[in-house]
Fold these 3 entries.
Entry 1:
Amino acid sequence: MTDRTPVRRALLSVFYKDGIVDLARALHAQGAELLSTGGTMRAIADAGLPVTEVADYTGFPEMMDGRVKTLHPKIHGGLLARRDDPAHLASMQEHGIGPIDLVCVNLYPFEETVEAGGSDTEIIEKIDIGGPSMLRSAAKNHASVAVVCDPRDYTRVAEEIAQGGTTLALRSELARKTFQRTGAYDTAIARWFQGKEGAALRYGENPHQAAGFYADLSGEGLGGAEVLEGGKELSYNNWLDLDGAVTAANDLPAPAAIVVKHTNPCGAALASSAEEALRKAWDGDPLSAFGSVIAVNAVFDAACAEYLVGPGHFVEVVAAAEFEAAAVEILRTKPKWGKNVRLVRVPGLGTAKREQSEERRVWGGILVQGSDNLHAFDAELKLAGSTPVPAGREDDLRLAQVIVKHLKSNAVCLVRDGMLIGAGAGQMSRVDSAKIAVEKAGERVQGSVAGSDAFFPFPDGPEALADAGVIAIAQPGGSMKDAEVTAACDAKGVAMVHTGTRHFRH
């Protein structure tokens, strides 16, 4: 038979009252003493159930407009005391502390108050202190205490109480849920404080979506960026493209330039000067580059500015580690540039490493992962087949691996002479990405090298590349058909190298 812990004393203090009287009835039916506060106590008393106010139980009055009411040793001692520790039990007896076997708390509506546009004073008053404290105390001691933070669990808890008490399995599950809730609550508060230093944007990805940019407290990356005076404000989409551009540029040795459109690199190049890198990056796909966001991981000098203001060029944003005064003057004095282009100085661009967690909201939760900050340009190129890599093409293969890391998966790109000449991204089939990259490259595909962000599951992708004129391919490897894929490349005289590292970007 499953061991159960009876509930002899319970503390109920909730903001949302739905269902709390039914839970109180279930507890009372099993002989539990009920403790409560404020509106929760009134709801329980109005239902004809005996209930003791926390202030009467502790002998200490509620004060400061309710800011202090449950922060008392008789509450937290009753929650935290280990029931199997003689020293804890002796302390309880010495100080007249009784055990509390169940806590039911839901928190002040902080997130809802922020969402509703409450004032700073209103929002701060909805930062719950006593509630999270009780929840965390009870959850820590879940070996003996049941903790309930979600009204959807009331029925399950009541059913177990009716069977003689709560099980350790349920208490553990409720403790996990409680720490998830208090963690999310604290995160929402921290984000609100950070957001006070943020800036509202005209709109989000589309005009009907509200948006803002909120720098974190590190002051790094875009959070420490300086938008030079003179251009239009950055939009939500500009910030996204800017992040893609500077992150990719940070993966390359200087001087290098990245051209981004819709978060995907459409141009990229390594060269002996910033201006040459910029020129080659633009020439990789001039059609897509128009209206793009550009990042240069070196000083943006007058030569770079003179190139950009030339015929057929227009960009939304230029980012660099530093701008020469002469370059700013050139861009600002050209009519179509001065009023439109945004110049963004990004500290650490080209030298700093991105060290942070990455978060994406999904319906009902948040996905969190570490940054993909492996330096793809330093990847070891291990020859997989018998066809050698043509002399002097290793850096092209490394550049290809950097670019596919920053393209939406599935991604395949083509590089020749230190510049991106074709990219296929975001396709459901890797062979389709390969075909798009070949089409983008046109006649320049002859003698190019290819990079893939993940392994080729079948020979069809590499065969399409080889037939178009690709002479070497870099990919992570790891497919069940690696040997078959490599044999197909050898048969066509194409070198195949493995890096051992996948770089998906969903």
Entry 2:
Amino acid sequence: MPHIVVVGAGIAGLAAAHALGRAASVTVVDGAQRIGGKLTTSVVAGVPVDAGAEAMLARSDEGVALAAEVGLAEEIVHPATSSASLLIGGRLCPIPRGTLMGVPADIEAVRAAGVLSDQAMGRLEEDPPGPPLGDDATVGSVIGGRLGREVVDRLVDPLLGGVYAGRADVLSLQATVPALARALRLRGSVVAAARAAVAAAPRREGPVFATLRSGLGSLPAAVARASGADFRLGLTVREVLRTEQGFRLIAGAVPAPSLLDADAVIIAVPAPKASRMLGVVAPHAAYELSRIEYASTALITLAYPRTAFPPGSGVLVPASEGRAVKALTFSSQKWEHLAGDIAIVRASIGRHGDASALQVDDDELAALAQLEIAAITGVSARPVEHRVTRWGGGLPQYAVGHLDRVRRIQTDVEQVPGLAVCGAAYEGVGVPACIRSGQLAAARVLADLAARDRLIGQEVRDNG
């Protein structure tokens, strides 16, 4: 059997290892002392709560399908409420229905939500047409140029910030809202394009989001068990080299490196780490990977005595509100299995290009979160316990030209048979997208190994 090394034990790498199945002997290597990457669960005030991603798209098949395949079908649950609010001028307004990443597709719904001033509503109703979209551009420049800054600041930026911890004035329209970009190539009107994109989306029944009753952080361990792979943790891979037989990975300390030989390699780590590993074997890909920037964030989880928070699943806070907190999740209201005598609230702090609020110790960060929760929600109770989880360089930023960059990376990697890359840096930061990325990487290296074996077999036959 071929030996395949997967570098990175986050959900993308684990999905790749699982997809390789019995077709190969698989070793998963990670510099961390645990598996799971940004999927992890720990206990706060006696309640298991996710410290990273806490939900996945249920309408993207890969996440719920993998959970079911590894024996967690009975654990899958859906939100008790999905309604959320925006903080606008210090007051809570409902997020308008019928938006596409905050871009309005239903003008009357935006009016009813009361999130825009009369002047901004007037411009939205005019929806001044522009030329069809050409080259890639930032979300902010396209939407702001057509509908005005208020739509960007109060609607689009908070939703993008919730997904990418980034800013509309930096993020690529084609990479982050591809359906809208496609529609804008045919229509000059933003609202009409958003309406067309929403209408063209596949109609699927059932809840939009899902998680696991034991926490989404329980998924990695189940996938790891089902994969049958061998795991080597606390071992950092520094470089990947090509050999006559396949690949050699140089890992561990420089004075006494560990060497791992493999027939194929899947790199499932963040772009900066992947760049350093691929400098020799795929230098053009390494250069492009080094250009992908990341945002640092912190998640502060607070446990309150039974407390009535505003209704709904949480609050998105526009940067224009001048607060450190960019999002609140009322976890005990969002997820029925977390409801009880303790009210769990998660506060997210940190945006791309602005990590100043993170430059304090954990207790100060928790105190800041508590003050802002009180100011936003009116809840003055003191939490009984808190947990601070820092994700330094945790979220890749899909800047203008990102999709072209990904194509250049993939093209260079494809020049090296048996090598593949996967993870959040490429074509989606959500859990299902990362799983899909890992599964595609597994299929790629297996196809390369099959082609190699056919070539060897043909040479043997030719040489009689």
Entry 3:
Amino acid sequence: MTVVVTGASGHLGINLVRALVADKRPVRVLVHVNHKTLEGLGVEIVQGNVSDIESLNRAFDGADVVYHLAGRISLLKSDWPLVEKVNVLGTRNVIEACRRTGVKRLVHFSSIHALQQEPLDTPVDESRPLVEGRGYPPYDRSKAAGQREVRTAVTEGLDAVIVNPTGVFGPYDYQPSYFGLALLLMANGRMPALINGGFDWVDARDVAQGAMLAEKKAPAGAEYLLSGHWVSMPDIAVAMKEISDAAITGFVCPMPLALFGAPFATAYSRLLKQRAYYTKVSLNALKSNHNISHDKATSEFGYQPRPFKETLRDTLQWYAQNGDIKCHLK
């Protein structure tokens, strides 16, 4: 039973492909640019992207299951055209290609950012409405719009399930991810200050396993939050000091001061043609709901995220093996 993965060269995609290969599934991957991270895994590689429906048709031909992970992440308020092209129109193309090629099940990867987190004093579960309106960042709105596309397709007969991971981190973070970049800066003593905020972080390997369980056991149209553990940035620094000799700053920047400085940091990143990770969007995300429930996934197919500190150790170990960090694990 051939399985196709879009976005396979991304952080979560790589972990999913490895899990599928370990499960002895025949895997075909759709790769846009770089497939070096997938070499040696014994997967079939198809060049293409979600904006090119003909490449999707080629990739999906003869496949029983498609995992749709390809997406554009942005922490800027000005990136709607970019995220819409990939996260909304690309998802629409994936749905159409599934129909044309007779794919039996689509597993769509949305995001916690697609769901409204307010009120913050009430746990977030699958009943939360999708975000809508220009008051939300473009990335959040695009993931919500992509999720609506899949919901509509389900009402029209497509067999699809949706998973909403929280903040993903873990090994095989080659690019690295935005959170991975923050961990690298902290581990290498280059983080000038810690922000007084946090997020729900989940192991990429646990998300992959959760999605595979959803593929096999969930009814058509089901949606699942795949969350982990809410941990603040200062507490991440404490945990990193407990498991390594990293020289991490102890200065915690108040959120109002961080928000004031964000536009200047964003402009500086653009000037240096670097990814902007210190933005108003990323800071506001750190004012997140502390309770993201995975009870539905746990009760229906046994999803259970591993402890945060275990993932942190494995991640730092992987970075160390790749020469990305200078500190040593205890």
